[in-house]
Design goal:
It is a single chain. This protein is α+β, with helices and mostly antiparallel strands. Helix content is 27%, strand content 26%. The chain is built from three helices and seven strands; from the N terminus they run H-H-H-E-E-E-E-E-E-E. The strands form two sheets. Strands 4-5-6-7 form a four-stranded antiparallel beta sheet. It is rod-shaped and about 115 Å long. The termini are far apart. The mean pLDDT is 77.
Length: 141
Amino acid sequence: MNRQTLLLAAMGVVLLVFFGEPILKLFDSGSIRTPAQPQSKAVKGIDDSGIRALLTSARPDSIAFTPNIWTKDFFFDRNRIIKSQFRLTGISKSEDGYMAIINDEIMQKGSKMLGFTIAKISESEVRLKRHRDRITLELIE
């Protein structure tokens, strides 16, 4: 056998290996059939009840002040969560200026609460600041 015949035989074997089954299916007369396996109609899923229970019981307020939890998230607005820690119930004017009642405590300008300093008190709002965080509490009448 010469080299060309061996090469032709090798190519034939490779073609039979890759395309043998599709070629046989083309010429199948249908006399030999294997029974089709019944497919179950019940879809198996994942039990996610534990995950759903965790998601419904988790509150964003509970993780608001944990260290370094949201410091690297550029788009997260922490003011909404931090603002929920303060409850402004009243503002009063005295000789020394305005005083605010926040979380049932009487506060003046410069007082500190939960790490925030009261920067300004006006007749309808209180402004708090801590480093880069700024919060405005509005009195709802």
